[in-house]
Sequence to fold (430 residues):
Amino acid sequence: MVVVLVFLVNSNDNSAFLCIFAHGMQLHKEMKRILVLSTLLLLMTAPHLWAQKKELSQARSYIKSGNDYDKAEKLMTDLLANPANRTNKKIYTTWYEAISGQYAQANEKLYLKQAYDTAAFFNITKRMYTVAETLDSLDMQPDSKGRVKPEYRKDHAEQLNLLRPNLYYGGTYQVRRENYRTAFEYFDLYIGAAHQPLFTGYKYLESDKLIPQAAYWATLCGFKLQDAKMTLKYSQLALTDQDKSRYVLHYMCDAYRQLKNEKEYLNTLNLGFKLFPSYPYFFPRLADYYKAKGENETVLKLSDQGLRKHPNNALFLLAKSIALLNMNRYDECITVSKQMIANNKDQAEPYFSIATCYLNQALALEQYNEPRKYRQQLLKLYSDACPYMEKYRQLAPLDTQRWGPALYRIYLNLNKGKQFEEVDRMMRKN
Fold:
């Protein structure tokens, strides 16, 4: 007779026991080997299952005591450190009860206006959400007959729906303390609840007016952390917050630049400029981009587009004057630059642009190599350029690389010896 040890596991409470079966038939050697190995494996598993049952029992005792919820939570997180336990619903339900008990205690202290760590209070809600969402995914697994019978969804969803504002305010609390990564976790849970099966039927995207604001804060957190993927995760949703959309587009541009996605970077810059032409981020980067490519016509077009809404905007006027200068449209550049001076006489750049226009016109005449024929015209051009370049020097005294050679040429052609010598000495020293 052959004696066979069979190790049985109760799937409801993970208890285990050994049964001994006897069989009168002679077993094959291979079958004997399989049975021996299986028995050894099961005997090795038994201590772990008994320890698991003991810790679950201890955790329930802590919870019933109403005082040691944190100890109960620690027992469950220790159990979950073992991957083999991560599909055990009893561990998660016990963990959830332990955190719920901590929340009730914290809430009571706040109600009684007793001292309590605000960050810790918000963190309890975050942990409750994380555990409940994991448990819900396990709870929805079909049984052996393919049936899905969730036990906890309704009660947990109702409870967590009431606590959900804590996620939003926990996020803003962390933003104020510049803990952007932690803040993002709160907003991620807050917005993500709208897509969680646990909250089916709540329709947060339709009913929750705070979601666009939460998306904005999440996008800001990504921007502050210079994490492009984090920045873009809720950016489209954040754009629905009308008061913040200009900033969201700014953060999106920065993210696309980090990702080296030139197409989306330009598309977003153009959208930002179209919607918010006076916002100081979009236009300068568009102008610089097209200027670097030599597309001055595009810069001019963008400048005129902005000026139609803001006729005296210094940035648009400056970009237009530079584009006109680069396109050799000197008379138009002078007109635009004089408009800038009329708006603000202390801007340095328009003085330089006007002087450069006159000098470039003089250079074009000098190319004909007929100094006598164009003498009077050349003198007038240099005379016209002189006060503007001198004013530029006054406003930008350190920019010697620009005004030094220009004044050298002006004073030489106007035969201003004293001024010429002063500039000549200065340039020799440099």
Summary: Confidence is low (pLDDT under 50) at residues 1-27, 34-38, 40-46. The longest helix spans residues 29-65.
